[in-house]
Amino acid sequence: MAQGGAPINFASITGNKSQDQPLRSVQLDGHVVLKIIKHCRESYPTLVTGQLLGLDIGQTLEVTDCYAFPRTDEQDDGTIDASSYQVDMMRCLREVNIDNNTVGWYQSTKMGVYQAEELITTYLSYQESIKRCICIVYDPHGMASGSLPLRAVTLKETFAEAAKKEGVLSLTFEKLRAKGVSRKDIFEEIPITLHNSPLAAAMATALEPEMTAVEADTARLSLSVAPKLESNLSLLNACLDDVFLEQQTVSQYARALAWQQQQQAQWLQRRRQENAGRRANGEEPLPEEDPNQFKPIKEPPAIDGFLVFNQLNQVCNQLNGITAQGLQKVALLQGFQRL
Amino acid sequence: MAPFILPVGSAATTVRVQPVVLFNVCDAYVRRNEGQERVIGTLLGVISEGVIDVRNCYAVPHDESSERVAVDITHHQLLAGLQAKVNPKEVVVGWYSTGDGVSGSDALIQDFYSRECQNPVHVTIDTTLQNQSLAIKAYVSRALLLGEKQLATEFVQVDCEVKTKDLESLGVDLMEKEICEKVQHDADSLETCIGQLSLCLEQASDYVDQVVAGKRKPDQAIGRSIAEAVSQVPFISKQNLEQLTNDSAQDVLLIMYLSNLVRTQLALADRLGTAALPLL
């Protein structure tokens, strides 16, 4: 409500405790969801992003407003433009008493797959300035089936720390294993709750159509799962292709490494024989290490494989969800038929 | 002698408001300064064929104390520029204010907005609930001219409809509650859907029964809708339907098997700690 002489700052009251409390839920305001949907749908199939504003209170992260980022592909001087855009936007929003505290960002995805390296790097760059941040992922495609395809994603702490220290791409399997980070310890999904001010709730009730069945209901009842299955299956195919590609890179690396080690061993053996000969002749032995001859082969980043696996896992989960729903509907139809 | 021009021509515009705008206005009203009676803001949208589709809005700070109105023009212009970068298709189409109906100072603000765009539309949303309802009204202004001199501004109410399609596909039930824990839909929601569907069917058959029994006056429009709905049901013989459902169930089961196969592979790969799928 309206701010008085001494504004009550909830964040400062609970803020000192927020560090040791894990994030339990993300509370989105209704109009934020509508804004995200509007922005992402308007620019679909272009994938867009925007900033989330709100408060970090104890175990919940409240998202009370958001604004869209302009598309960057139109201008070359994007970086200067973007930062001045943000500064201007924040100032304008502060003037009308909107929380101007960044809590993360939102982005649209294709088919709900968000596991990408960019998300990790963006997350880390956000975390440099704010302690806790969240990424809301929205899939404009999934709206058609009558569900709300929103997810709140963060990185798990152990992985985020490791990635910050070493750099995302230089994390090898060994390093990740030493930290105890497996494929499942990268992303974490936080449950979302929706919050509406009493006024907004009254508005929704006033706008509610008189019909008992609304669009979302009919969409949920639709019998045809084929288009959704098809698009998810082609995504599964693409993911499997990625896995094979990744597998090839890893095995290529392993082969190259083995070959190099073999060469090195041969070379060392020859050098030792040579040195033995030289020592017998009373000459100075040559050094047994030659850094110039064998350059270390760069190990492919482990994160790529992990991300592809995570994607695959998610597509499988989606497929299972859709097929389960499809079976339910078929069973229902068979039940109706017997009546 | 200067010509005296009376406002002529009908205001043949319709205003269509997207729900996102209304919820934004509500939020802006909740966040107003102490002592401030109403909030105003700029409306953005697209005009086509006489229909103004209001799609976006932002609040503009203003000061309305003691007989004068001051609108923060720099704020308005800065935000208009920023919004244009995100979506260049949306242009300034008018302005909104909370409260019911038009007041005297609105003419001055309308005057300002008519410099920003042609024929600005003024939408009022009664967030104070004066008449026990959230009235949404739209106005356009017509000028009463004497030569070049403007004598008065007249506000004419125009049709205003709220597009609820967005809200419907989101699910009104999500927006109605103050706190909603369950956002994702799952198997349980199918049950409620079926419940609603059977409720609809019951209502329709009740209506038909009543009309047939002569208890209720028949309405042709409803009758046509029911006939249309019934004719939409495809006629499939029992055998064919059985075949169809079985085929569909088999397809779905096959895909389920495939996805479970991949998942097993993934679990195996996790256990073995390899980067490759072991059996594929």
TrEMBL record, chain A:
Domain MPN span(s) in chain numbering: 26-159
Residues covered by region (Disordered): 270-297
PROSITE patterns with a match to the protein in the record: MPN (PS50249)
Keywords from the named record: Cytoplasm, Initiation factor, Protein biosynthesis
SMART domains: JAB_MPN
InterPro entries: eIF3h (IPR027524), eIF3h_C (IPR045810), JAMM/MPN+_dom (IPR000555), JAMM_MPN+_peptidase_M67A (IPR050242), MPN (IPR037518)
Cell compartment(s), UniProt: Cytoplasm
UniProt biased composition (Basic and acidic residues): 271-282
Keyword Transmembrane helix: no
GO biological process, one term: formation of cytoplasmic translation initiation complex
Domain of life: Eukaryota
GO molecular function: metallopeptidase activity; translation initiation factor activity
One GO cellular component, as annotated: eukaryotic 48S preinitiation complex
Subunit-level organization: Component of the eukaryotic translation initiation factor 3 (eIF-3) complex.
Primary role: Component of the eukaryotic translation initiation factor 3 (eIF-3) complex, which is involved in protein synthesis of a specialized repertoire of mRNAs and, together with other initiation factors, stimulates binding of mRNA and methionyl-tRNAi to the 40S ribosome. The eIF-3 complex specifically targets and initiates translation of a subset of mRNAs involved in cell proliferation.
Family affiliation: Belongs to the eIF-3 subunit H family.
UniProt protein name: Eukaryotic translation initiation factor 3 subunit H
Organism field: Apatococcus lobatus
Lineage: Eukaryota, Viridiplantae, Chlorophyta, core chlorophytes, Trebouxiophyceae
TrEMBL record, chain B:
Keywords associated with the record: Cytoplasm, Initiation factor, Protein biosynthesis
Main localization, broad class: cytoplasm
InterPro entries noted in UniProt: eIF3f (IPR027531), EIF3F/CSN6-like_C (IPR024969), JAMM/MPN+_dom (IPR000555), MPN (IPR037518)
Domain of life from the UniProt record: Eukaryota
A Gene Ontology term for the protein's cellular component: eukaryotic translation initiation factor 3 complex, eIF3m
Domain MPN: 15-145
GO molecular function annotations of the record: metallopeptidase activity; translation initiation factor activity; translation initiation factor binding
Pfam families for the chain: JAB, MitMem_reg
Gene Ontology terms describing biological process: formation of cytoplasmic translation initiation complex
Subcellular localization(s) per the UniProt record: Cytoplasm
Summary of the function given for this chain in its UniProt record: Component of the eukaryotic translation initiation factor 3 (eIF-3) complex, which is involved in protein synthesis of a specialized repertoire of mRNAs and, together with other initiation factors, stimulates binding of mRNA and methionyl-tRNAi to the 40S ribosome. The eIF-3 complex specifically targets and initiates translation of a subset of mRNAs involved in cell proliferation.
HAMAP family associated with the record: eIF3f
Recorded family membership: Belongs to the eIF-3 subunit F family.
Oligomer status and interactors: Component of the eukaryotic translation initiation factor 3 (eIF-3) complex.
Designated name of the protein: Eukaryotic translation initiation factor 3 subunit F
Source species: Apatococcus lobatus
